[in-house]
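Sorry, explain these tokens?

***
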Amino acid sequence: MAAGSLVVSLLFFFVFIISWSYGRLRKSLMPWVMVVMFGTGILYLQGVYSFFSYDAFDLTRFWQSYLLLILYSLGAYCFVILVCQVSAEQADGAIRFVFWALILSAVSGLVRFSPFFPETAFKSVLFYGEPSHFALNFLPLLLYMVVRNRGRMKIALLIGIVPLLLMLENLTLMAGFLLIFCMTIQPRRLLQLLPLLLVVFLALQLTDLEYYAERLDFSSSTGNLSSLVYMSGLERAYLNLVETGGVGVGFQQFGIVGSMGDLQESIAALVGQESNLFDGGSVAPKIIGEFGILGILVMSLYFGYFLRNAKWLLRESNNHGPPADPRDVFFYSCFTMYVIDLLVRGTGYFSSSGFMFVAALYWLFFKPMASMQGEAVTASSSAKSEGIDTVLDEC
């Protein structure tokens, strides 16, 4: 997915430059430059250490990914600045349009129609080669819609989406839906969702439950490729962490440097080749394997903010007052649902869900800084005004 991420990143950058040159934007790139210098500096130093420590280090892959990361983060920053220029109503309308477009994509997946992936049409979801890729993009939008809707519309959305998710038969989708349910519905409102149980029961009659049972079998003797890939990622993350003394193998070296583990041999015996060697099935094993203890600390920080944001989304979902800015809800949703990439199913750093996660980081952390600067300017103006009034009174 790196090529698509590069195109999208450059697109947002060019739109930013055009808008800036016409005087539509007043934001500079300096905050992005400061963040990139700090973040990529750490990656560079660790990469140098890994290069001299391991003969298998892939220098070409490192540099290509390093440059792509800079452009990737630049595109995400420009996207956030552009979002700041649109109104809340425009943002809400755009998000809802994409949500319903993805619903139509899911329906096309049910009827096995995809002109983009004809050779894998039996499992593709229109624009996506498999349901898991669709899920990573769809779940943040679903969370947004559930939070933004009120009363019966929220209940109708939850009930109506269940048959669609079950018939797509994807564990990533179901895990994300259950997480969204827990983050948006208060226990006292469960009685209102009794019709959901009937819908789930009827949908289960049309669902192959063996699919879910196979993917939830995490024994070493399982013959399910998805389960083996997931466990292999965890195994290799542990081996890399131990073998490197907690330092990690370096940026984008997961699956290249370090031991492959017994489960990867089982995968090769099952399908005749290595599978998901570089992404580890989900993003968390990749982060741990590549950055060691530092990766664990960064993920711990993420989970702390995850809990805080999940509480905010729960309050907003059950809020009876004026709704929050839809852009806040959207970026909080993108940040929160990245936990699915981390722990359930992920395709690596340069995915579309990863792009939205980086954009959410910029929105969540730069917005308070902008607010503080705005308050400082207001306070300074007030102080000057009070000073002038004092002088006038004395006169």
In short: The radius of gyration is 24 Å.
